[in-house]
User: Fold this.
Amino acid sequence: MQPQPAAEIAFIKEAALLLFEAEPQDESIHAILLKVFDAEDGRDQLKRLFERRKDLVSSWPAKLPASPRAPMANAADHSLGNASPEHETAHSVLRIPRVALLPPGNDSSDAAAAMVASSLIEDITLGFCALNSLRVIAPYSAMQISRQSENQLALLQRYDINYVLDTRLSGHQDDLSLFSQLIYLSNSEVVWAERFNFRKMDLARNKRDISRHIVLEVAGQVEQHELTRTYFEQNPAAYHQYLVGQQHLHRLTLPNMRRARKEMKAALRESADFAPALSAIARTYSKEWLLTARGDIELLKSAEAFASQAIAIRDDLADGYRELGVAKVLQGAIDESVEALELAETLSPHYADVIADHADTLTHCSRPQLALEKITHAMELNPLSPDSYLWTAAGASYALGQFGQTVDYIEKMADSSLADRLSAASWAMLGDSEKARFFVRRTRETNPDFDVDRWLAIVPVKEQWHKDMYREGLKKAGF
Assistant:
């Protein structure tokens, strides 16, 4: 077979992509698309768009306990590979999303690398221009928007831009990296993020491969995100109540957890099978178990039941698996928890909250180094981190014997009283008995019946050394 001219290859690829956009669920079109892109080593990237979730998700229905309330719709009707006619119709009338590629930020001192990175963004823009599944803003307009530091968001909204691809070059010489993240502007959600590491000598040579990888990944992520967003917007009243409830979940207090639960139940009255509300209710029960510190198993059973209902209704959304994983770890089923959270992260690999909960479970699994790496990544994706992230980072640091770092993380929390027990143990291990006693007294004010041995008997920690380390700190503090 004679090699085909570049123009002909580009035409064939464009035709294949047009077919995919018209019938995204058609397996025969997937095969055509894979064959076309295989000529330029794009096969693995495209396969990830179709198969990343398929194998893991298909194994889960048999593992779930029977739902206490049968769902009104079969979960398969909502899965990516089995979209219902109504779902496909709703998707077909969506307006094409608009993407702005902002010029790369530069924290590197390497001017030549910065020029290559800028050229890379131009290549990515041209790659998007070849697709009809999204519209890309011209580089000149993107440059003008990037220069507006004060009203940049207003400009993006004025021009009806839905997604921003933000990139930043950092490092120097053999330590260069390009961090890229795709942000959905409506709620500042990080839809996709990846760091590309490359040596100076390889940057120019790898630019084309990196460009193709980003184009294919972003196109696939936008497609998936738009499908999910359609599901939310098909239930506007339920979605509104859900958003109201989400605001209460941001502050870890008992009154807030109960307000959130009330709003989520109102969402379910609007749409009985609105899976995100079921997941959120599960979260309120798990957090109430932590905040009350009484070991009430019924709270965790309720959390598990609501999470299982959410998965039964929508097995392609990460939140149900996330909440199931949290409920499982608090019940001591640590291996099952890790499995559920690994699946949640596979479904949404750039969902900072999922990564943070995965990190917390790894801490309970007595793998604090990996936990700290994961929570650091979550903080990179969500730099204005909520208290729960800092609490997880503090717990992992304590298990690593980094007591000063533990205190540093706790002091950054908006409400550090949530971690008073950990503060007391950390200051005791640092040898500051006065500060340790202060946090003991403060803990006693809110929980006068707190008992170290009773608490450690119900806190799930996989390895005995880890539990002994926590007990040592608490006892030294004066509990």
Observations:
- Residues 66-94 have pLDDT under 50 and may be disordered.
- The longest strand covers residues 189-198.
